[in-house]
Amino acid sequence: MTTWSRLLSGGELRQPDAVSCGACVAVVATALHQGAPPPADFGSEVWALHRRLTSCADLDGRRQWPWPRWWGTPPWALARHLTVVSGREHRVLWVRTGARRVVRRVTAALRDGAPVAVYVGSRLLPRHVVLALPVAQAGVPTTTDLRWTVHDPASGRTRHIDLDAWRRGRLTPGWPRPWWVVVPTAGRHDRVSRR
To answer: Which branch of life, at top level (predicted)?
Structure first.
């Protein structure tokens, strides 16, 4: 866990280009789910996963809608990826239809030890993805009832999301509006990855 603490606070787990924040989140979340350190060649792994997340087939070989890579990572592809690597079904929740309900779901997942992808952006469009870190992540400032600790791929460092600002749609710094979260459901997923 010391390595994770150093990596998450030291800026080493940074997205390699302007459109791979979602893939960067997926690589970090995968490593956390598997209890392993992130890959040594982090940037190459992020690019490879970005190609997979936007291709015609998911990690498990099932068909998915392709997506233009320069638009980033679609949340449904990230949900399918996290379902395969974690063994738990993941769903995309739209924040604007229930910000308080989403806060409860995300906080419960973080307390249960699962990272959660969070899409943020402007008033008009989602533009960035960060990873809310589980409460039990040693060495990282903890998530509380007032804030979540997130890994921000743009800087490669951790920062906080204030939950009162979340509910008002006024996040700072960066993109002010929450859009979607990719969160695990309560039950276990019964498929096993064929990787």
So the answer is: Bacteria
